[in-house]
Design brief:
Elements lengths: L2 E5 L2 E4 L4 E8 L6 E8 L6 E7 L4 E3 L8 E6 L4 E6 L8 E9 L12 E2 L3 E6 L1
Parallel strand pairs: 2-11
Antiparallel strand pairs: 1-3, 3-8, 4-5, 4-9, 5-6, 7-8, 9-10, 9-11
């Protein structure tokens, strides 16, 4: 059974850094669209990073561009999200997600596999 498990969340002050991990099991990551989403109370789930493993193509929304970096370690079957220059508005629950084939949207709809989430709190 395919499974995604996030870790690495925590509490940091504004300007700090965190690295999130998403361990993936029972899933060949050779041709997969993977993404990190975040959701805070009262807000919709939004993508903060996306990676297509077939071509190592990454996409970021303007809100995190230059601060967040998504990467993958195939040997460990693990997706990472390095977050630098964190701001209070980056707080929320962070989820990794995946769907087969190429990436074509930043919306959560086509992502069929989701982790349970990890909490990030950024204080001012």
């Amino acid at each position: 059974q395919r499974k995604l498990v996030e870790s690495g969340g925590g509490s940091v002050q504004a300007g700090g850094s965190l690295r999130l991990s998403c361990a993936v099991s029972q899933y060949d990551l050779g041709d997969v669209c993977m993404a990190w989403f975040r959701q805070s109370p009262g807000k919709e789930r939004e993508a903060v990073a996306r990676l297509y493993t077939g071509g190592m193509i990454t996409t970021y929304p303007d809100s995190v561009k230059g601060r967040f970096t998504v990467s993958i370690d195939y040997a460990k079957n693990t997706l990472y999200l390095q977050m630098n220059g964190l701001k209070p508005e980056d707080s929320g629950t962070y989820y990794c997600a995946a769907h087969g084939g190429g990436c074509y949207t930043l919306l959560p709809t086509p992502f069929g596999y989701w982790g349970q989430g990890t909490q990030v709190n950024v204080s001012s």
